[in-house]
Specification:
With about 120 residues, this protein is mainly beta. About 0% of the residues lie in helices and about 50% in strands. The protein is built from no helices and 11 strands. A hairpin with a 6-residue loop joins strand 4 and strand 5.
């Protein structure tokens, strides 16, 4: 599965941004999809995940209520809508695919190249 992330950029604190991840695989709907991020000097961390049907989601506590993950299986695309952004959300955001869910990035099988999100204060 090849993943292509897009939509990152610079936004002011309190603003919104949506990042997208397009998958090449027609069996996209078989996979859990997730978003991870890596801030400067920090480990990669789990942000959000969604099951194959789109009716089950999981979030990092600090983004609950601000971020929403969704998917469109007809378009082989997963989205992360980010609202009320904070400077601490600044990171490279990576999309990932896995046949099983885990919040540990080591268990995810396929990765996109990452897209930079910068939130200015």
């Amino acid at each position: 599965v090849q993943l292509q992330a897009s939509g990152g950029g610079l936004v002011q604190a309190g603003g919104s941004l949506r990042v997208s991840c397009a998958a090449s695989e027609r069996t996209f709907s078989n996979y859990f999809m997730g978003w991870f991020r890596r801030a400067p000097g920090k480990e990669r961390e789990f942000v959000a995940a969604i099951n194959w049907a789109g009716d089950g989601t999981a979030y990092l506590d600090s983004v609950k209520g601000r971020f929403t993950i969704s998917r469109d299986n007809a378009k082989n695309t997963v989205y992360l809508q980010m609202n009320s952004l904070k400077p601490e959300d600044t990171a490279i955001y990576y999309c990932a695919a896995a046949l099983r869910y885990s919040s540990d990035y080591k268990y995810w099988d396929y990765w996109g190249q990452g897209t930079l999100v910068t939130v200015s204060s």
